[in-house]
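Lab notes, practical 5.
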Amino acid sequence: MKKNKKHLTREQRYQIDALLQAKKTQKEIADI
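Output from the prediction step:
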């Protein structure tokens, strides 16, 4: 994780984390 992420609000962080997790999930599903 990059330190410059600290200036984001908690909501923005959660949105980014959710998007990243969703992409990971899609990638894992595609690999199966």
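Observations recorded by the TA: The chain is about 70% helix and 0% strand. The chain has a mean pLDDT of 79.
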